[in-house]
Amino acid sequence: MEKIIEKGPERALLCAVAQTGKYEESERSLEELARLADTAGIEVLDTFIQVREKSDPVFYFGSGKLNTLQALARENEADLLIFDDELTPAQQKNIQKQLPDINILDRSALILDIFKIHAKTREAKTQVQLAEAEYLLPRLARQWTHLERQEGAARMRGGPGEKQIEIDRRLLRDRIKKLKLDLQKIALQMETKRKSRSRRFNVALVGYTNAGKSTLMNLLAGPSVEVEDKLFKTLDTTVRRVQLDKTHTIYLSDTVGFIRKLPHQLVASFRSTLKEAEEADLLLKLIDVSDPDYPLQIQTIDEVLKEFQIPGDRFVTVFNKIDLLEDMTALASIRSRHPEACFISAQRGIGISKLITAIRSRIDESAYVHQFYVDPADGKLIADLHHHGEILESRFAGEKLLFKVFLDASVYESLKKKYDL
């Protein structure tokens, strides 16, 4: 398989199979696919949906529909077909053989391309490279070094022979091994950084892409993350120290956004990034309440995080963009179904004080402010207080040092036992 770069913006038709009774769901999924295409700089010309019980294992659509699709592509002068599902290697090969003059891309490949564009740190770039290599391995038909999709469309052509293909597969497998080793090294470095923050309360923002995580991050921590109305505009995990009030400080992390039909290669590769969520003391599950499919957002987030086995009591559901919801009756109904949730507009600052109160209450449930009268010569205890807690005040009180320290409850019990306090 080889990619030849063409000049000019790509012009695409979006294609999907809609299961019987789920046509509207497929339409909304294609709307999301159109936004992904826009993020990748692709012009969407039209959509094509076939209703059937399930996709055809050979051609995705029925073979007859491919002829209709080919005619539609010629009529619209499209040079690219984007399929809303991940095509199997066999489907991709068969479709390309049937439509040799049209470039083929599936949802997973499009998301991988967007991730490549937006990955900035070494960790994110390595994760994307690994996910791409694992996606390409079963689809390999020519040297993998030719498989860089840059600014133009991608034309697939047959390989030079079985022997060369096997050589290329071995090279790609070796690259996958190296990338996994690189990620392990990076994960160790990130783990060290996380341990340095372990004495503070860690809050992770998790949510559907474009639900407003970056906007909320900037509202609480000050401008730090680029915000744009495009999917996956921010990809790398950002961590900021946030002073909620005089006695409550948190580390707030903005993790990668979730999306329907997220390529399984990316879920696996981004496990180290999602460690921020796995090890957080509290997770804010951010939902775009103005999206009619918001229950599906919740389901998507829950499915991705299920493998991390995060206890349910560590989540707070936050419905964002309430200012965009015109039907107040619908909002009241959602409130009644989610009485423990917070309802905010990060863009307009609505409901933020209640969200901060909810975060503070969670902190107070697990950590407390304690006073210690310490002998100035007791260096070990003083060092442990600095290492495990947040010093709110330290001053001499007679011959003793008075420390007011914010400590996790379990850490306090441990120090109490260790020093017989």
**Share in helix:** 40-55%
Number of strands: 13
The overall number of domains is 3
As for the CATH topology of the largest domain, it is Rossmann fold
Order of SSEs: EHEHEHEHHHEHEEHHEHEHEHEHEEH
Rg measurement, Å: 26 Å
Poorly predicted residue ranges = 1-7, 142-161
Give the CATH level 1 class of the largest domain: Alpha Beta
Average of per-residue pLDDT values: 82
Under CATH, the homologous superfamily of the largest domain reads: GTPase HflX, N-terminal domain
So what's the overall shape?
Answer: elongated
Distance between the termini: 69 Å
CATH-level-2 architecture of the largest domain: 3-Layer(aba) Sandwich
User: The biggest beta sheet, please?
Assistant: 6 strands, mixed
Strand content: 15-25%
Spatial strand order of the main sheet: 6-7-5-8-9-10
What is the SS-derived class? alpha/beta
Counting DSSP H or I runs of 4 or more residues, the number of helices is 14
